[in-house]
Each structure stands twice: as structure tokens, then as C-alpha cells.
């Protein structure tokens, strides 16, 4: 990226690279990027990395850099849930229990994830529904039947796109 385009990587570039590597299951490579960044990783990068560890079942030890996630955003319940999940995966049951206790003591909860979905949009005569699709909300299934039916095909397209993006980023990063 520097040699080819003369662009110095910013925090956002490193974040994208960590996210792409993590989604591809290249956890060690993503962690090396985090350790060797010329700046401190932000909470988004750390959350992305920990989420990839959880999603790929990779056990890691929460070092000081990764513990900063809880310190940097002490009122975000999702960070505690993520850290506890990764600690459990790593067999650090006491750490996971301590994190969950701290979360309860602070009265924090994890907000359900959601995506905004537009159904029926595009045409001038079509009615448009623009509302959140919350993970695990069975009441919305009837509104988004097409999304559920086409999910395997969409997932395959997304994974192919992510792999292509990852390969492009890896080739052009340095």
C-alpha cells in the first residue's frame, strides 16, 4: 500500500486487515498485526479480534492489550460477554466467572445484535419496510421470509466476496 500507492496505513486500515484475517480464521496472523501496529488498537479492532477467536473456537489468553477492551469501554455489556466467552473457550473459567460477576455488579446487559433490512424497496410502486431485524426475534420471520429462504445463497456470496477482499488486501497492504 505504501510502495504501490504512497498511502500510509491508518488505524482504520489495520482494523480492516484484522477483521478480514479474523473472518478468514487466520487468528495468529490477525494477532501479529495487532501486536505490531505502530499505534494502539482501538476497541473496535480488539472486539473484532475477540469475536473472530470466539467464532472460530480459538482459545487465547487475554493479555494486557486485550484486557484494555474492558477498561476502554467499561459500560458496554457486549465487551464483557465477549471477553467471558473467550475466557471460557480458553479454559479460564475463573476469569470468565469474574468477568460475568463484574458485569452483573455494574448492571450491564448485552444489547441484542440487529441489522437494518429494507424489504420491497427499489420500485416506485413497492411499499418499503425499513426496520431492524433482531437476532433471535421469531416475530419478524413472516416479514422477512425471503431473507430466510435465501440465506444459504447469500452467505456463500458474502464468503466469496470476503475471501476476494482479504486476498486483495493482503497482496496490496505492504
Describe the overall structure.
By secondary structure, the protein is mainly alpha-helical. 59% of the residues lie in helices and 7% in strands. It contains nine helices and two strands. It has helices at residues 2-5, 11-23, 27-36, 43-56, 64-72, 77-89, 93-105, 145-149, 151-172, and strands at residues 114-119, 129-134. The longest helix is centred in the C-terminal third of the chain and has 22 residues, at 151-172. Pfam families: E_motif. One of its GO terms (biological process) is RNA modification. One of its GO terms (molecular function) is RNA binding. This is Pentatricopeptide repeat-containing protein.
Radius of gyration: 19 Å
**Sheet with the most strands?**
2 strands, antiparallel
Q: What share of the residues does DSSP label as strand, in percent? A: 5-15%
Number of strands: 2
- What best-fitting shape do the alpha-carbon axes yield? globular
Alpha carbon gap, first and last residue = 5 Å
Spans of at least 5 consecutive residues whose pLDDT stays below 50 are 124-128
Mean pLDDT: 76
Protein structure class:
mainly alpha
The number of distinct helices, counting runs of at least 4 residues, comes to 9
The SSE string, one letter per element, is HHHHHHHEEHH
Q: Walk across the major sheet and give the strand order.
A: 1-2
